[in-house]
Amino acid sequence: MMMMMMTSSYSSRITILQLAARRRGPEQLFLDQHQQHQQPHPQCRYYHRTCHRRQNRSVVTSTSSIITGRLKSYVLDRAVRHDSPLWQQQQPPQPQQPPRLNGDDHDQSGGVGSIGGAIDIDDDNNESDVDEPTTTAHLWDPLDDLDVSHRATRYWPHLPRGIGMAHHHANGGSSSTSSTTIDPFVLCADELSTLSDSIRNDLLGTDHPVLHQAASYFFKATDDATGGKKFRPLLVHLMAKALAQAAASTGPQHRDDDGQTYGTNTVTSLPKNRQRRIARLAEIAELIHTASLFHDDVIDQADTRRGVPAVHQVFGDKMAILAGDYLLARASMALARLRNVAVVETMSTIIEHLVRGEVMQMKGSVSGSDNNNSNHHNNTTTSTKNMRLDYYLRKNFYKTGSLMAHSCKSAALLMGGSSPNNNSNNNIDPAWIDIAYRYGKHVGMAFQLVDDILDYEGTLSHMGKAALSDLNSGVATAPVLFAAEEYPDQLWPMIDRKFRHDGDVEHALSLVHASAGMDRTRHLARVHAEIAMDAILELSPDETDPRRTLYRDSMVQLAYKVVARTK
Ligand code: FPP
Ligand code: MG
Known about the structure:
This protein is mostly helical. It has 22 helices and six strands.
């Protein structure tokens, strides 16, 4: 059987490779298209021609693709059925020696996922630095707080007491009490409006026209919907401002690394140098995110992203992958230039986690067939069900939560020196780093859960990307996992076969809507959002003057908005 599959796969591979070689045509076509139409539009004739050719091709290659696809998923399924030990939940690393700082005033240590001793770049004699267990240093978050589906919400549909009373006056930067809610996007409008320009001009300079155009596909001069929500940069800016404000309102003035003091109840006095470093961190987070989307859209063979053709539809798969690599390369260089080892390690962790999350998604989930029982769906045990949800939630952390958690943590690390509970100007209270990490992590979890709801509810025109893509690509997310608890006989087998049979997607969809799957997913998202709210409120727990907690409170609002969003 295996031999037969291998033989047919070999011949179909040749056909596919031959077709692929013929199909690509001159890269010039894609370049012409992009030069003529800065933003390729579905009405563009080149776009149509490409789509038309693609449709014809798909008829020719459909049989081969099905065989190759089945073989690939068979092999992948076998190969990754059991997570390798490294990918299991890890214990915290046992530090062999206390964390060291190298005297560089940018280096800090401590807090969630902190490096177990920053590399001492000045110590030439200590060769063991490079052997430090970087594979475990950042894995010590046990991720045992992801399934909070059985907790009740604490505030919903309200906000925690006292939040929502401050109103920001965009022109004067001052604040007063009013019942208007605080819009976090308005608070950071200036920072976000210059982000794409700054990335394009400062970070993406290359003299190769195609690479430049592909890489800056989502960083246009005219900042439109293709620029995305800029949610990750917003988190970085707000976190920095919230920390600075908390330090200002609860402690004495602090001295920045360039000798200036700051510490009023707004962050306008934050030294320029620190503001620039925070802005750069926000850009790095967006670059990493965008790189992952370029790659993801190739993997998923997505047609559309942010309402326009996905980057690989315009430039081809190879160029999209290389453009993603290029974004990562530029992000790495910018990261190194922050000259902060802890931030470098923290942000690098994100890249590993994104890859891990993507592979977990490709693998699917803990298979019911692991029970070694042909009639396994009737016997799907509670522990297998829990493992599926647990697996899904860990995957969500890796593909979404980690970027937000580690970006927030890095913002806190860069704000080192702003904690009132620390005598040193160079260190930040580890509790604040922990707060930043927890906030980002749980907002990220809520964000992805809502994304998974919107995949069921949204439309292409509203979302800018195809709806129902999860079911169509065989991915079981929270709505269907919860629904399967109500309709186990129907849904577990469909989940196991990745909704491959004719009618599976429609059937699963109707069962999800007939069940409490969507409501339970929304509930889980709310609980995560509230955990994030509680985390950020720890920043200045006793502060009751809303003018002195403007940014902290706007982050509470942001967590609320994440769950309430419709796109
Ligand atoms: C979107 O998921 C995908 C991600 C959030 C992460 C993708 C990560 C990789 C491709 C690994 C490589 C990483 C880098 C940094 C190059 P989705 O497909 O579920 O959501 P969608 O509907 O938005 O596509
Ligand atoms: Mg995708």
